[in-house]
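Now for a typical sample entry:
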Amino acid sequence: MRLAAVDIGSNAIRLQITTVTTYEGTTNFKKLEYLRFPLRLGLDVFHNKKISDKNKRKFIKLMKAFKLLIDLYEVDDYMVCATSAMRESENGKEIVEEVKEDIGLKIQIIDGNLEAELINLALWSYIDDKSYLHIDVGGGSTELNIYSKKTKIASKSFKIGSVRALEDNIPLSVWKSMNRFIEEHIGKKEKITCIGTGGNISKIFELSNPPKNKTFIQIDKIKEIQQYLESFTYEERINKLNLNPDRADVIIPAAKIYLAAMTAANSKKMIVPDVGLKDGLMQVLYKKNRNKKHTSSH
């Protein structure tokens, strides 16, 4: 079975095509194709409330390219989900309709709660009976989920994201409401481990040079990496640290968001699994199609 997932974020757009096989009772997910295109829709939307004509044209071209790949790989089923930038954009629904009419690609604009639910599907293997705060920082929003004894006890989406923070576009009241949410649901004496998802925390984790098989990072190390990144100019982060241009600027504000949430939770440690929205979409697609021999959604 071949499945495709597209995550239309505020800072970048990702396509993953996966083949799913079952052998001797074990189901294996193997990545066939992964593409990340740096189209920053969030910058338009958080400034002007709509996607610019230039970025709209680029977006439509990208959706054509993704649809071609989905067809070339003869994918059985796919899901395309758009998050914060598209849901806040005045012309988001109109663009989604145009893509459906012209290209035949169906895009779902999802809210923050569903976004969090989908990411959670990919996280279950990391969650045990202890308490966890899951922090997912995107370009336009941050999703928080709190778990205790393998049960989600609270969940909320906040308009705090790396692209918004880059533009200094987050009111103090929103930061306060995020801290309040964490403090209300996590007891001060409770020892809690954080789980961080999103491209920026994955890159911070990578920059920490973790030993093989290590999946967590200490808060002090995140602070150290943040200070290290701040010691370089934007150009140096691209040329000396080899960061993508659309990662080199947002990684510092993203680090601040992760650190703010960890500090509010009084947490010292963060697990960094390499999963995100696209992996949750794969889980949904697999559950939907596992009993079918051949399916097609397009």
Notes: The radius of gyration is 19 Å. Residues 53-72 form the longest helix (20 residues). The first strand starts at residue 2 and ends at 8. Residues 2-112+278-289 form a domain with the Nucleotidyltransferase; domain 5 fold (CATH 3.30.420.40).
